[in-house]
Amino acid sequence: MKIQNPVLPGFNADPSFIRVNNTYYIANSTFEWFPGVRIHESQDLVHWNLLPSPLSTTTLLNMKGNPSSGGIWAPDLSYADGKFWLVYTDVKVTEGPFKDVQNYLTTATDIHGPWTDPIKLNNLGFDASLFHDQNGRKYLVQQTWDHREYRHPFNGITLTEFDTKTMKLKPETARNIYNGDDVKLVEGPHLYQINGYYYLFAAEGGTVFTHQEVVARSKTLDKLSFEGEPDGPFITNMDTPDFYLQKQGHGALVDTPEGEWYYASLVSRPWNHATESSHDPRGWSTLGRETSIQKVEWDDQGWPRIVGGHGGQVEVDAPKGAIETKAPKDHSQHDDFDSDKLDLNWNTLRQPFTEKLGTVGNGKLTLVGNHSLSSTFDVSMIARRWQAFNFDAETKVKFDPQRYENMAGLVNFYNDKHYSWIYITRDEERGPVIEIAQNDNNNYTSFLKDHAIQIPAGTEYVWFKTLVRKQSYTYAYSFDGEDWHEIPVELDAAILSDDYVLQNYGGFFTGAFVGLAAVDYAGYGQTAEFDYFDYQELPDPDREKEVHPNQAG
To answer: Which residues contact residue 18 at a Cβ distance below 8 angstroms, ignoring those fewer than 6 apart?
Structure first.
């Protein structure tokens, strides 16, 4: 049986990877999307099930007003002393000389919760992880931020002892244990004890095409005692520009009950327009940063190496004893909104789904119009990740706009500066109409304008659909759910990619989403009613030719 990479497609970045008995867990970043931290479990590293997110209350996570791509960065999940430990960072500033963050700790005896109220740790830097030493001590290991313009902002990896009696850090014990190498941007640290050494795994090069993971080791945890792996880096795709998998780096290590080793890494699968070189630009990552798993072997000097070379493989041998089962076809989803709770695949922006945003159940989703989609506060939208390059998403909506400030419809969304949607609104002269608009780095364009499609009098429902085809996508509408009209407005999917957003904004970490939204920026709370949502993934005709050869070299 083979592990097919990426194992967690679509925005599932910064994996924290552990095993508890025979079950593996991966925890991923969620940034400004609520609930916080995405956790999957598996018995074989091949098939993964989504679990409820641990940060599901505002007591554990309050992100209102957070900038896009702020919020939860690189959570760390560990297991010790009969319980799960989750360290997470809430980032309040993404650009400029400062990184204002708060690092927290919460614990649970069951992965499904309940999770304890958060314990504040420190604000020193992001990507914090908790190391449980075999001698009983515990340490917080973290990237360290330096605002001083005459120093590099990534100021090495800091280790600070954590007192389990007081549940507080001991700041007097803090020391820098590793500065990284000349690639710089050292972050994402995880410590392990293996065969008499402390091994430090850390990311470098930024989470772009120069991304990599390095390994250093030491017999002690003394200041600057770690030496780097020779013939590194441990994993990177910087020098494999034509390989299907790119940007591998930040991740974590795990062993199996049979003594095999695997490494979970973030990864991206960029694509290019037909008119572009595949090397420059390197590509557009609309699915964001995903999770891959690579097999690890140890050389005769005790250093870990990626099987097949540091570029990794698309197909990886599964662990010994893994039972062959039929994998689900894809991540398609149909939701009739019968439950009074949102499906685990749905996310909201910065805050939980409450009556302020809307209600769900009894076969409908009602959204209360709030701020525009460009707000970082009260946005009435539920959305799910793009998890395939090609898909159709469809909905049925009832909406009676009273003003042009009233809008409701189907959204493709990256962040408050980059999104598009098809929606019902009101024209002063012609009444309810259908419009398509795009926000491209805060340049908002209404495509239909005076030719917006007039909704016939007496129409109760309008059906909307988006057809995403890797490099581009379109929208369609229907007044009966059967006779569809595709609108001749073709949008460039690259605008919803990490790499495009990076050109203008320092927070480029989340990938694209598709969802449902209602806006009433006049402030009267106009509501929209959605009957269902359907997301159907389609095959990627380019995949077979792109994944071979299997190995990056």
So the answer is: 24, 25, 77, 78, 79, 252, 254
